Amino acid sequence: MKMNKGFNITMPNVAFAWGTKYHMTEDEFMIYAHLQFMRQGGQWNQTLTSVDMIIQYLELKTKNKQRDKEKVIANLNSLVEKGYITIDCEGDMKKVFFTVKQVQGILSTDFAVEFEEDGKNRRFMGFTKISGEHYNLANNEGRALMVITYITWRNNINYKVPKSEWIKVLGIAKSTLEDWFNDYKERFLQVFEGSHYINEQGQIRQETNSHVIADKGKQPINLEEKSKKAKTESFLGKLRSQVTDITVMSDDEIFMQIFDKNTFLEFKGYKAWKETTCKFVKTNGQKKLDTMRASKNHIAGKVADKLEREYQEYLSHQKQQSEWMEQQMARHDDVWKSNGEEFISSYVKKEKSSDDFFFED
Questions:
Q1: Which of 154, 189, 213 is the last residue of a domain?
Q2: pTM listed for this prediction
Q3: Residue 46 is part of which domain span?
Q4: For residue range 51-88, what is the model confidence (pLDDT) as tens digits?
Q5: How far apart are CA 147 and CA 130, in angstroms?
Q6: H helices of 157-278, where?
Q7: What is the helix (H) or strand (E) element at residue 85, kind and residue range?
Q8: Do residues 167 and 49 both lie within one domain?
Q9: Beta strand 210-213 with 189-192: parallel, antiparallel or unpaired?
Q10: 71-78 contacts: CB < 8 A, separation 24 or more?
Q11: Domain total for the chain?
Q12: 195 and 256, same structural domain?
């Protein structure tokens, strides 16, 4: 199932902490991301779903329906045990709708996973934001989404990931890694080979490769231009200090789309502007839209109108999804009542909550 490119979620960086209880498998990673994207309107950390829906949306259906359901349930239970989610379910999970909540304690500033390996201290904490566009590039493949997310995180702190680390993060062999990366190069991955140099012993060595996520159908990303853009954003620091909307303030893409005149306004930024309660963001976003509509370039005005249509379509889709969910629940209720089944509430561990924060390694 494709997601709206303007949506975004937060993936805990401790999910990559190999050798610890928090390390996610590729299936767990994909399901966890999917559950976030399927959050109901107004519920920032809550998803009402069913095993059948997860199988359908993630295209996990095989000839063995029973095994499909057992596999999904096993991954959900594992995510509960690892502390990422809680599940509120009445009855048999294979048959009923249930509520999944994202545990926020694992994203708190006090929570970190640390361990020592080969004389180097490793520290995982915080989260990485993933857009619907990146999610779609993975095409329901958990390992691909892990690669996309890990590259996004590490690039944000200018850290180049060596092959030895990829093997541990993904839990695969070196030969398998090369095969998968060759496939990803065809779909979404750009690899910039590190320069060769001669070390103190006179041996030829190569610096660690750089990785960038880019849709194959789009213009390749230029690393120098990307760095230049990041420096340009620093000039907007005074404006950022006046923003009270956490989403706009912490997401550089959204911030630039609303405040930078040279950055195109896309659905992600438009949606944030429509839904913000920050007067400063509202005012500056409106100024940009007014400028677009008043521009001699008629395309700019059309873009502004198109964004509004897309936003209304998004609201309509959310409403339809909610109505469909209610219909499905009503239909299941009728079936359960006709069968005379009884349900027993399961124990649910209460999760902690905390504010979002930035990550570090």
A1: 213
A2: 0.62
A3: 8-213
A4: 999 999 999 999 999 999 999 999 999 999 999 999 99
A5: 12
A6: 163-170, 174-187, 223-233, 237-240, 246-250, 252-259, 267-275
A7: strand 85-89
A8: yes
A9: antiparallel
A10: 71/27, 72/31, 75/25, 75/27, 75/28, 75/31, 76/31, 76/100, 78/25, 78/28
A11: 2
A12: no
